[in-house]
Amino acid sequence: MSVREWYKGKNVLLSGGTGFMGKVLVEKLLRSCTDIGTIFIICRSKRGVNPSQRIADFAKLPLFAPLLKQNPKALQKLIAIEGDITEEDLGLKPEVKQKLQQNVNIIFHVAASLKLEAGLKEAVDFNLKGTKRMLELALGIKNLEGVQHKTTVTSGGDSGHHLQQKIPYKLWLDSAPFYRYF
Fold first, then answer.
1. What's the whole-number mean pLDDT along residues 32-61?
2. Are 67 and 30 within 8 A, CB to CB?
């Protein structure tokens, strides 16, 4: 089965979709997996721009120009979800959380603070607790097939070393209570 076939009809939940890595991931999924279902993007309002507008603004980016030339309706698969990884329940309204738990198949968690000058509290809120909150949401997703986490450890450049850890889904689910220690 090809990657394209595997993603056919599957719905994705993405955090960090408005960041550098997130935008590249969105473009790649839309271009390479044309039969993908919906991509739900959790993001917050920023500088007076609401999540829906932030996602709509993707159409203005050069990154998306070739995709939109090929498929002008590609961005219609994107749904902005008002949320914030620094808040309990990711800042999701209960009805939105329920919708995600009923419809999502795959999670990409790429939201994080990359600020090296950030204080410990900010780094913990974004990078550690944000991941914990995403995993808590994942535990309630009925048809979850995979979780991909992009950590800031691997976002900083190419050191010549590559860290990759694969955890089989069932093993991850069985050991999920580990996050309660944070």
1. 95
2. yes
